[in-house]
Amino acid sequence: MQKRTAIVANAQGIHCRPSALIVKEFLGYDGTIRIKNARGEECDVTSVLQILSLELTQGAKVEIEVSGADEEKTADRLVELFETHFDFPPIA
What we know:
alpha+beta, Histidine-containing Protein, Chain: A
């Protein structure tokens, strides 16, 4: 099992578009990916609605747990996604 922490960078938080990109990226992953917000609420990354329910705003801390195939690479990629500015163009 790999554990990571990420800080949400997107100015608008993790809304529908970033959530959909995260779900799409890991759809069919052979293992388990769980994320948890600072309040201790958690979900897996297979549902946009579950991710949205965590209410991840800019600056929010996200705890990530990955187990399964290529778990280190998968955990690193998930951190990268949470720390991406998804705004087009980015908001200063």
